[in-house]
Automatic annotation (TrEMBL):
Native source species: Streptomyces parvus
A Pfam family it matches: CN_hydrolase
InterPro entries cross-referenced by the UniProt entry: C-N_Hydrolase, C-N_Hydrolase_sf, UPF0012_CS
Domain CN hydrolase: 1-239
Protein keywords: Hydrolase
The name this protein goes by in its record: Carbon-nitrogen family hydrolase
Length: 263
């Protein structure tokens, strides 16, 4: 299974419309891949809080339209990263979309853990309430967004729901790049799952982005990692490796669920 992670640069001197067109052409250029992934809030920038209101879109708004077409034109499963969704009641969400190779939306995931403590996303957006998995022909994706990476119980919930490949769409800052790499490997090792984590390049909201998108296998080995700049990271995965790792080192079966705190 070939996966392409598009670490797109998000800079304020490019308009959202121009970036949408560019992102779509980057997706179409990945024809031949099975799965293509974009990062968190790439239309506006994960830290460009002041633009969230103005750039919010309905679920089936311009980002949905452009990405559905790009998935169909490329003939790939597309995790289209996330955008600022304005729900019917006016609440904003950090929402990721997944499309089939025919361009049908098969999933929408609203970020569960909002970043910013007492500011930014944490106060401007609503929190998602649902774990989301997506069955592809060769693997089951479990969806997460950026700050979610710090919450292992979400990933364990996804694994309990069948996830074998954990996808993290992010806009992670350079300042905490060491956490990014460490946490991506930790989520892979503890869940015996692939982790495909894609961040943005560039600087938005005055926050320099880490880039360094990463692919980790179910044994915790880093299969590939990007640099800091815009880049497409393409990796071949063996979906059977999740099953063989879990069979040969069956640590997930040794969980003491009665003692752990409930989700
Ligand atoms: N957009 C985010 O969720 C940023 C998360 C982050 O910077 C961190 O967890 O550190």
């Amino acid at each position: 299974m070939r996966a392409s992670l598009i670490q797109i640069a998000v800079d304020p001197d490019e308009s959202v419309e121009a970036r949408r067109v560019r992102a779509a052409s980057l997706v179409v250029a990945q024809r031949g891949a099975d799965l293509v992934i974009l990062p968190e809030l790439w239309p506006v920038g994960a830290f460009a809080y002041t633009a969230f209101e103005a750039e919010a879109e309905p679920l089936e708004g311009p980002t949905h339209e452009v990405m559905a077409k790009a998935a169909a034109e490329a003939g790939v499963w597309l995790h289209a990263g996330s955008f600022v969704e304005r729900a019917d009641d006016g609440t904003l969400y950090n929402t990721s979309l997944v499309f089939s190779p025919e361009g049908e939306r098969v999933a929408a995931y609203r970020k569960i853990h909002r970043f910013g403590f007492d500011r930014g996303e944490a106060v401007m957006m609503g929190a998602g309430e649902e774990l989301v998995t997506v069955a592809l022909p060769d693997t089951i994706l479990g969806l997460a967004t950026c700050y979610d990476l710090r919450f292992p119980e979400q990933f364990r919930g996804l694994v309990d729901a069948g996830a074998e490949t954990l996808v993290v769409a992010a806009g992670w800052p350079e300042r905490r790049r060491s956490h990014w790499t460490l946490l991506a490997q930790a989520r892979a090792v503890e869940n015996q799952a692939y982790v495909l984590a894609v961040g943005t390049a560039g600087t938005h909201g005055d926050i320099q982005q880490a880039g360094h998108s990463i692919v980790v296998d179910p044994w915790g080995e880093v299969l590939a990692q990007a640099g800091a700049d815009e880049e497409v990271l393409t990796v071949d995965l063996d979906p059977d490796k999740v099953r063989t790792t879990r069979d040969q080192f069956p640590a997930l079966k040794d969980r003491r669920l009665g003692l752990a705190s409930p989700l």
